[in-house]
Design a protein that fits this description.
- The structure is a single chain.
- The protein has 2 domains: about 90 residues, Winged helix-like DNA-binding domain superfamily/Winged helix DNA-binding domain (Arc Repressor Mutant, subunit A), CATH 1.10.10; about 140 residues, Up-down Bundle (Four Helix Bundle (Hemerythrin (Met), subunit A)).
- Helix content is about 65%, strand content about 5%.
- It has 11 helices and 2 strands; from the N terminus they run H-H-H-E-E-H-H-H-H-H-H-H-H.
- It has a two-stranded antiparallel sheet.
- The radius of gyration is 20 Å and the shape is globular.
- It starts with 9 loop residues before the first helix and ends with a helix.
- The relative contact order is 0.18.
- It holds the Pfam family FCD.
- It comes from Azospirillum griseum.
- This is GntR family transcriptional regulator.
Protein backbone atom coordinates (compact mmCIF):
# COMPACT_ATOMS: atom_id res chain seq x y z
CA UNK A 1 0.00 0.00 0.00
CA UNK A 2 1.17 3.49 -0.76
CA UNK A 3 0.53 6.58 1.34
CA UNK A 4 0.45 9.64 -0.87
CA UNK A 5 0.69 12.26 1.84
CA UNK A 6 0.69 12.69 5.58
CA UNK A 7 -2.69 13.39 7.13
CA UNK A 8 -2.57 14.90 10.58
CA UNK A 9 -5.44 14.31 12.97
CA UNK A 10 -6.83 16.87 15.37
CA UNK A 11 -4.91 15.15 18.15
CA UNK A 12 -1.59 15.72 16.40
CA UNK A 13 -2.46 19.25 15.32
CA UNK A 14 -3.65 20.25 18.78
CA UNK A 15 -0.46 18.85 20.29
CA UNK A 16 1.68 20.78 17.81
CA UNK A 17 -0.19 24.04 18.35
CA UNK A 18 -0.02 23.78 22.13
CA UNK A 19 3.66 22.90 21.98
CA UNK A 20 4.33 25.83 19.65
CA UNK A 21 2.38 28.18 21.92
CA UNK A 22 4.36 27.15 25.01
CA UNK A 23 7.71 27.09 23.25
CA UNK A 24 6.86 30.38 21.53
CA UNK A 25 6.28 31.97 24.94
CA UNK A 26 2.58 32.66 24.47
CA UNK A 27 2.13 30.84 27.77
CA UNK A 28 4.62 31.79 30.47
CA UNK A 29 6.26 29.41 32.98
CA UNK A 30 3.89 28.83 35.87
CA UNK A 31 0.82 29.91 33.90
CA UNK A 32 -2.23 27.69 34.35
CA UNK A 33 -3.40 25.75 31.32
CA UNK A 34 -7.16 25.74 31.77
CA UNK A 35 -8.84 22.94 29.83
CA UNK A 36 -12.03 24.85 29.09
CA UNK A 37 -10.11 27.82 27.68
CA UNK A 38 -7.95 25.53 25.53
CA UNK A 39 -11.04 23.70 24.25
CA UNK A 40 -12.50 27.04 23.17
CA UNK A 41 -9.31 28.38 21.63
CA UNK A 42 -8.37 25.22 19.76
CA UNK A 43 -11.90 24.17 18.85
CA UNK A 44 -11.39 20.56 19.93
CA UNK A 45 -12.77 18.34 22.68
CA UNK A 46 -11.57 18.05 26.25
CA UNK A 47 -10.30 14.56 25.42
CA UNK A 48 -7.96 15.93 22.76
CA UNK A 49 -6.76 18.73 25.04
CA UNK A 50 -6.09 16.32 27.91
CA UNK A 51 -4.13 13.97 25.65
CA UNK A 52 -2.04 16.87 24.38
CA UNK A 53 -1.33 18.09 27.91
CA UNK A 54 -0.32 14.61 29.05
CA UNK A 55 2.06 14.29 26.10
CA UNK A 56 3.60 17.70 26.79
CA UNK A 57 4.12 16.63 30.39
CA UNK A 58 6.33 13.78 29.15
CA UNK A 59 8.32 16.35 27.16
CA UNK A 60 8.92 18.47 30.25
CA UNK A 61 6.89 21.44 29.01
CA UNK A 62 3.89 20.91 31.30
CA UNK A 63 3.63 19.87 34.93
CA UNK A 64 0.55 19.01 36.97
CA UNK A 65 0.17 20.65 40.36
CA UNK A 66 -2.10 18.93 42.93
CA UNK A 67 -5.39 20.79 43.47
CA UNK A 68 -4.43 23.24 40.71
CA UNK A 69 -4.04 21.27 37.49
CA UNK A 70 -1.62 21.60 34.58
CA UNK A 71 0.70 24.58 34.30
CA UNK A 72 3.57 25.53 32.02
CA UNK A 73 6.61 23.87 33.58
CA UNK A 74 9.31 25.92 35.25
CA UNK A 75 12.77 25.13 33.93
CA UNK A 76 15.34 25.51 36.69
CA UNK A 77 18.68 27.22 36.22
CA UNK A 78 20.39 23.95 37.13
CA UNK A 79 18.46 21.94 34.53
CA UNK A 80 19.10 24.56 31.85
CA UNK A 81 22.82 24.59 32.64
CA UNK A 82 22.95 20.81 32.26
CA UNK A 83 21.12 20.98 28.93
CA UNK A 84 23.60 23.52 27.57
CA UNK A 85 26.51 21.46 28.89
CA UNK A 86 25.17 18.42 27.03
CA UNK A 87 24.54 20.51 23.91
CA UNK A 88 28.11 21.79 23.91
CA UNK A 89 29.51 18.26 23.99
CA UNK A 90 27.21 16.81 21.33
CA UNK A 91 27.20 19.80 18.97
CA UNK A 92 30.96 20.26 19.07
CA UNK A 93 31.42 16.60 18.13
CA UNK A 94 28.80 16.92 15.40
CA UNK A 95 30.50 20.01 13.98
CA UNK A 96 33.84 18.20 13.77
CA UNK A 97 32.26 15.22 12.03
CA UNK A 98 30.26 17.40 9.66
CA UNK A 99 33.36 19.35 8.61
CA UNK A 100 35.10 16.11 7.70
CA UNK A 101 32.26 14.06 6.23
CA UNK A 102 29.51 16.31 4.83
CA UNK A 103 28.84 16.57 1.10
CA UNK A 104 28.73 19.91 -0.69
CA UNK A 105 24.95 19.71 -0.98
CA UNK A 106 24.77 19.47 2.82
CA UNK A 107 26.51 22.82 3.09
CA UNK A 108 23.99 24.28 0.64
CA UNK A 109 21.15 22.99 2.83
CA UNK A 110 22.79 24.47 5.92
CA UNK A 111 23.06 27.80 4.11
CA UNK A 112 19.37 27.68 3.15
CA UNK A 113 18.42 26.95 6.77
CA UNK A 114 20.50 29.91 7.91
CA UNK A 115 18.75 32.13 5.36
CA UNK A 116 15.41 31.05 6.85
CA UNK A 117 16.68 31.95 10.32
CA UNK A 118 17.62 35.43 9.14
CA UNK A 119 14.29 35.97 7.38
CA UNK A 120 12.51 34.77 10.51
CA UNK A 121 14.26 37.42 12.56
CA UNK A 122 13.42 40.06 9.95
CA UNK A 123 9.73 39.11 10.09
CA UNK A 124 9.65 38.58 13.88
CA UNK A 125 8.52 35.01 13.16
CA UNK A 126 9.72 32.94 16.10
CA UNK A 127 8.35 29.67 14.73
CA UNK A 128 10.27 30.02 11.48
CA UNK A 129 13.46 30.74 13.41
CA UNK A 130 12.98 27.75 15.69
CA UNK A 131 12.08 25.35 12.86
CA UNK A 132 15.01 26.49 10.72
CA UNK A 133 17.44 26.30 13.64
CA UNK A 134 16.36 22.74 14.43
CA UNK A 135 16.81 21.88 10.74
CA UNK A 136 20.30 23.43 10.71
CA UNK A 137 21.43 21.21 13.56
CA UNK A 138 19.70 18.14 12.17
CA UNK A 139 21.61 18.55 8.91
CA UNK A 140 24.88 19.13 10.78
CA UNK A 141 24.46 16.05 12.96
CA UNK A 142 23.21 13.66 10.29
CA UNK A 143 25.62 14.73 7.55
CA UNK A 144 28.41 13.97 10.01
CA UNK A 145 26.97 10.54 10.73
CA UNK A 146 26.04 11.43 14.32
CA UNK A 147 22.68 9.67 14.28
CA UNK A 148 22.82 8.40 17.87
CA UNK A 149 23.84 11.82 19.16
CA UNK A 150 20.97 13.41 17.23
CA UNK A 151 18.61 10.90 18.82
CA UNK A 152 19.78 12.05 22.25
CA UNK A 153 19.20 15.68 21.26
CA UNK A 154 15.70 14.77 20.09
CA UNK A 155 14.77 13.46 23.53
CA UNK A 156 15.45 16.95 24.90
CA UNK A 157 14.23 18.83 21.86
CA UNK A 158 11.13 20.39 23.46
CA UNK A 159 13.14 21.86 26.33
CA UNK A 160 16.02 22.86 24.05
CA UNK A 161 13.57 24.67 21.78
CA UNK A 162 11.89 26.36 24.76
CA UNK A 163 15.27 27.67 25.93
CA UNK A 164 16.15 28.67 22.38
CA UNK A 165 12.93 30.69 22.13
CA UNK A 166 14.01 32.64 25.20
CA UNK A 167 17.48 33.39 23.87
CA UNK A 168 16.40 34.43 20.38
CA UNK A 169 13.84 36.77 21.95
CA UNK A 170 16.55 38.64 23.87
CA UNK A 171 18.01 41.95 22.76
CA UNK A 172 20.74 41.71 20.13
CA UNK A 173 20.28 38.05 19.20
CA UNK A 174 18.75 38.93 15.82
CA UNK A 175 22.25 39.84 14.64
CA UNK A 176 24.55 37.93 17.00
CA UNK A 177 22.80 34.57 16.73
CA UNK A 178 22.91 34.30 12.92
CA UNK A 179 26.47 35.67 12.89
CA UNK A 180 27.60 32.95 15.27
CA UNK A 181 25.92 30.30 13.12
CA UNK A 182 27.49 31.82 10.01
CA UNK A 183 30.88 31.33 11.67
CA UNK A 184 30.02 27.66 12.20
CA UNK A 185 28.97 27.26 8.57
CA UNK A 186 32.08 29.04 7.27
CA UNK A 187 34.29 26.67 9.24
CA UNK A 188 32.31 23.66 8.04
CA UNK A 189 32.63 24.70 4.41
CA UNK A 190 36.38 25.17 4.87
CA UNK A 191 36.41 21.64 6.33
CA UNK A 192 38.28 23.04 9.31
CA UNK A 193 37.15 20.68 12.06
CA UNK A 194 38.97 22.51 14.86
CA UNK A 195 37.52 25.89 13.92
CA UNK A 196 34.04 24.41 13.48
CA UNK A 197 34.25 22.89 16.95
CA UNK A 198 35.38 26.19 18.48
CA UNK A 199 32.66 28.15 16.68
CA UNK A 200 30.03 25.70 17.88
CA UNK A 201 31.24 25.84 21.48
CA UNK A 202 31.30 29.64 21.37
CA UNK A 203 27.73 29.79 20.04
CA UNK A 204 26.36 27.38 22.66
CA UNK A 205 28.23 29.21 25.43
CA UNK A 206 26.81 32.58 24.36
CA UNK A 207 23.27 31.22 24.09
CA UNK A 208 23.56 29.37 27.39
CA UNK A 209 24.74 32.48 29.21
CA UNK A 210 21.75 34.43 27.93
CA UNK A 211 19.29 31.66 28.84
CA UNK A 212 20.60 31.42 32.39
CA UNK A 213 20.44 35.19 32.83
CA UNK A 214 16.82 35.17 31.64
CA UNK A 215 15.93 32.35 34.03
CA UNK A 216 17.57 34.25 36.89
CA UNK A 217 15.55 37.34 35.97
CA UNK A 218 18.60 39.43 35.06
CA UNK A 219 17.39 40.26 31.54
CA UNK A 220 14.01 40.34 29.80
CA UNK A 221 12.83 38.99 26.46
CA UNK A 222 11.52 40.92 23.47
CA UNK A 223 7.74 40.45 23.47
CA UNK A 224 7.55 41.32 19.75
CA UNK A 225 9.06 37.90 19.05
CA UNK A 226 6.14 35.99 20.61
CA UNK A 227 2.61 35.16 19.52
CA UNK A 228 3.12 33.80 16.01
CA UNK A 229 1.44 30.41 16.33
CA UNK A 230 -1.30 29.78 13.78
CA UNK A 231 -4.71 28.16 14.20
CA UNK A 232 -5.79 24.63 13.48
CA UNK A 233 -6.90 24.18 9.86
CA UNK A 234 -10.67 23.84 9.53
CA UNK A 235 -10.37 20.69 7.40
CA UNK A 236 -8.21 18.68 9.81
CA UNK A 237 -9.32 15.04 10.05
CA UNK A 238 -11.36 14.19 13.12
CA UNK A 239 -9.49 11.70 15.34
CA UNK A 240 -12.59 9.63 16.03
CA UNK A 241 -15.68 9.38 18.21
CA UNK A 242 -13.71 9.52 21.45
CA UNK A 243 -12.59 13.01 20.56
CA UNK A 244 -15.84 14.41 19.25
CA UNK A 245 -16.46 18.03 20.27
CA UNK A 246 -17.48 18.23 23.92
CA UNK A 247 -19.88 21.08 23.39
CA UNK A 248 -21.46 23.34 20.80
CA UNK A 249 -19.14 26.25 21.65
CA UNK A 250 -16.12 24.06 20.93
CA UNK A 251 -17.46 23.16 17.48
CA UNK A 252 -18.26 26.80 16.83
CA UNK A 253 -14.75 27.77 17.84
CA UNK A 254 -13.32 25.39 15.23
CA UNK A 255 -15.48 26.95 12.51
CA UNK A 256 -14.41 30.44 13.53
CA UNK A 257 -10.73 29.41 13.58
CA UNK A 258 -9.87 30.87 16.98
CA UNK A 259 -6.22 31.42 17.71
CA UNK A 260 -3.97 29.92 20.31
Amino acid sequence: MKVDREIKTLRVLALEKLRDAIVGLQFKPGERLVERALVERLGVSRTVVREALRHLETEGLVETIPHQGPIVAHLSVSAAAQIYELRSILEAAAARACALMAAEEDFARLSAALDSIRSGYADHDIKRILDATTLFYEIMFLSGGKTVAWGIVQTLNARITHLRAMTISSAGRSTKGPSEMEAILTALRARDADRAERACLSHVTQAGDIALRILRGDIAIDQSMTGRVTTLPADAPDPGPASAPASAPASAARRRGRRV
